[in-house]
Design a protein that fits this description.
Helix content: 25-40%
Strand content: 25-35%
Strand order of the largest sheet: 5-1-2-3-4-10-6-7-8-9
């Protein structure tokens, strides 16, 4: 039979074990924060974007011109991101025009697998284009002459994407007669495919 002294020792052992568990939990939280900070400091934008695209994250992309594109981050190319917008279209934003990208507050859940991929006028299999360059993706899209709006800093042009060269795109605008607009790709902040959804 245990005496009073034994109960006191058991209480002390229980108290010591509880304190040890609390210290261990606090240390684990500190390690986790430190590891997260190290990962963020060592991360490159393309790696972060690829992770968000893999999750099919909903994002708000803001260009250096102040335009915002909201939708699911569908893929990341060599020099652009592709967003399946909430309006049902597809937008391409070159890295050179990307000011920042963020997830809406409280929206860090995994996507519903029943949703499936978005339709795309420029992907053969309807999937992400992978590591394609923007000029290559646009050249592929031009084969079907999609309706696009091209945004630059304060200027926009809407029409059918006719062709794409090394550093320019040709957009046929409406009118009587229709006109051709030659867009310098280096000046593009966003290209919206209007009939992609």
């Amino acid at each position: 039979m245990a005496d009073i002294g034994d109960e006191g020792r058991f209480d002390e052992i229980d108290r010591w074990a509880a304190e040890a568990r609390a210290r261990e939990a606090a240390d684990a939280r500190v390690r986790e924060r430190w590891l997260r900070a190290q990962a963020e400091e060592g991360a490159q934008m393309a790696q972060v974007l690829a992770g968000l695209a893999e999750r099919g994250a909903t994002v708000v992309v803001t260009t250096i011109a102040g335009r915002s594109v909201v939708g699911r981050l569908a893929s990341v190319g060599q020099d652009f991101v592709r967003v399946a917008t909430t309006a049902g279209s597809t937008s391409l934003v070159p890295f050179s025009a990307l000011a920042w990208l963020r997830e809406p507050p409280g929206d860090r859940r995994r996507p519903d697998p029943a949703v499936g991929p978005d339709p795309s006028p420029f992907a053969d299999d309807g999937g992400p284009p992978g590591a394609a360059a923007l000029v290559d993706l646009l050249a592929q899209a031009a084969a079907v002459r999609p309706r696009v709006t091209v945004h630059s800093n304060g200027a926009s042009v809407t029409g059918d994407l006719r062709s794409v060269g090394i550093d320019m795109a040709v957009v046929q605008t409406d009118g009587d007669p229709p006109g051709l607009t030659y867009v310098r790709l280096a000046s593009v902040y966003e290209i919206s495919f209007l009939d992609s959804g």
